[in-house]
Specification:
Blueprint lengths: L4 E4 L5 H11 L7 H9 L5 E8 L2 E9 L7 E8 L8 H15 L4 E7 L3 H9 L3 E6 L9 E7 L8
Parallel strand pairs: 4-5
Antiparallel strand pairs: 1-2, 2-3, 3-4, 5-7, 6-7
Length: 158
Amino acid sequence: MSEYLLRQMNGADLDSVYQIERDVYHIDPWSKEQIASEFAGVPDTRYYIVAEKEGKIVGYGGLFSPSRGVEADVQTVTVTTELQGKGIGRLLLVDLINEAVRRAAPAILLEVRVGNDSAIHLYRSCGFVEIAQRPNYYGRDLHALVMRKPISDIAEAQ
């Protein structure tokens, strides 16, 4: 997986991240303002990373972690459509998990769209388990699974 470089996101990445967001999420993508607002929380309450291949951003991930001892929340793990299934999502997710550990979060939460089987498989393979459902979370008839991973299970993600 050495062909992909993970690094912390910076302000110059916002346009590329926004373009990927629009390309991947045809229904209700985050606006450029939402992405910028999320990024504005770095490093106090947010952690955002990008994956690059040959200098081009091919994925990104974000974590909300407000303070030590509070559960962290994966905000996004997104990979360009043409490179999905290549392990980039796992690289991003493991880095977010490791950041949650550094921030002393007792657990990590995330939401994933029901029917996004590849993402659900990735999350389960990293030790996340379903704890609830949120009807209409992504829009009308677009439900979310809420998944959780206790920090004590972190070693399994590696």
